[in-house]
């Protein structure tokens, strides 16, 4: 019987039960108790069928629409009634969602890197493993002779193989139009392998060694609207190429984004093409695996290909999946990548998650705080006949309405902040308005947020017992306040941690920037020698430029002082044969020293007018490595040629500003591809450039006058750290803003709830200061707790980060104290506003209301 | 398209309600069917059919008295509605029509039909 009552539809229970009993009585009379009992049980079991079993959900009225309309109406009215809370809720949530969307877009962009190429999953790059004296260096730059045996011996494993040079700034000229654009020499399979989108011509065009492929932007700049096909262009004023095709510019999030022109590998002007040495590493090699081939297996097969050709160290090649190239980094030292993006993906993903979490916490906090004031409403609704399911629906609808409003607002905000974010993050992302996947994710995410943050009030409130609520018996005790306090602590822990991290990042950048350079970068400009004329006419250019008065000094050098190259072919007396040490080696003309303004510590500078081709200058770091007490006059050997040390210069910071200065050697001979000039400080930069330009135009008619500033080039070394710092600052500001919004809402709520208490206290003689202290104390304690948690946390995190830098700032106590104090001040300000307002209000007003 | 939905068992229940007129409630309908058609009817089958008929609008209910042998549970009486009558009539008419359409010869050949 009880079983029947449990499963049957309420409206049917009574009379069917009556029938069952009557039947039972009859059977009892006719056939005795046993049969009657059995019959009864059988009947009950047979009653268990669709028409009679009650539905799982009580309400299955055919038309739910009016109920939903009511939910929305009530939700809307509630929003309007509590404008303050609603706007705090919506703005806070929208800010959080905006951050999450921006970061989501950024991560999607990073993860989809190179997916523009149709075959990206089957392409691999051939990597080099050099093992020398226990150090394993892995890098992408290989020697071009590797390619031939790959083709002839292992051709079956590859669908396509393409050598490719690094991108070189190349002057391309058509008529009197000249452009300097990055170009690569590539083998004929390259366009097909990377499925370039051809707008004109075919992907096979590079089979002819006298063609060139242009990107759409270059073609447009050179030819305007005219048809570029089969036109002749001149490259670097040295050789002519026929335009064989136009391809669509490669998007920003691809490895070859900076490649604007492709030139055929087999052109005689490609010096890479003539390389036959196995130890001359100069180009990149990409392969497309055959359909049946497995990357690991093929990689093992080809591994020892270059080993027999190299005597001095052990060299191997491996395949590296193209898809992993960007995220996991191509260069590794002892298996540790130094340019991996995946850590940034994790870092920003975490930050985004936290900011959104903060916003959700706000939302929950405010809803639960307000829930107490809605307890009576719940009581009345229940008395009138609402069932629990409907109340849950009501509250969930309300939170979803808020979330959707926030979502719409966040889309607007995202669109507005996207350009700013793109410059910060150096990206070109856009909101994919038309992508269903984007909408599904975003909406799904919004609804999920709404459900999660609305769930607590929904389920907690709807469980109230109406009789007790209406009597006013439901009081939330200390326990109910605990989760809210925990949430506030979490919020502020995250905020304070972010503040400290941001400050430390900026401090590190400042610290490195303020490091003494050892020379002056101001007014130094470089011009790359990219045409034969610049080389042959150098003396003329130098003289004429000096005569204009635009420059103070001019020199030629092999590298810009913004970054020197290095190698390990320096030998000296008493060198440990097992030592692997890299020296910056720079070929300079005698005027170099005066141009950069270096300081001679010992000995002399290069002689300007007498031949001085066997002297070298070293820097302090080099002397330290070599261990010479009196270095002047010592003989050192560079690339098998002996030199005499003529002088020692003070260390100059030209490499990473975070690392100790590397040993450097300045040589009087060698190829010097850079013209370095010191602008006259008496003139403005514009004036000086205006005077220089005609000099270059006259002596170098085939190339445009292109120059770069050394200080700017050097500044790029801070770009990555500055970007992290700026992004972190952006997120921190938002996180603090969101937390404060939440706190503000909570404080105003508490103040409102305690209006009467405050009134009575005032009547009894409490001063405004007393009341302010009383109201602020709770929150201040919470913030202090979060500071106590976040300080060790951030010290640990940032200590880890700073480990990467040899030359690093320290986390001083005043950074921590300052950040904590900042958070504290902001909290106090936020809370005090409400507290003081409550405290100064007239007690008569608040007490009279009943 | 069927104009009136009426299953075989539903039709029997509906007819029985008609037979019992004002005395039709759960147990009486069950007993009536059992005696007249000599087939056993489970309470479950009967009440499912009744719920379904009521949903279709062929019968309506009114609460009756509670007797001692029902331990105070009220009876629920069933009555055929106008729609129910139409459905019955429709059902009968279609059957009659079919009956009439059967050629006489079929009945004569009946002994052979079993083969």
TrEMBL record, chain B:
Pfam families: PadR. It comes from Chryseolinea lacunae. It comes from the Bacteria. Coiled coil: none annotated. This is Helix-turn-helix transcriptional regulator. Residues 22-89 form the Transcription regulator PadR N-terminal domain. InterPro entries: Tscrpt_reg_PadR_N, WH-like_DNA-bd_sf, WH_DNA-bd_sf.
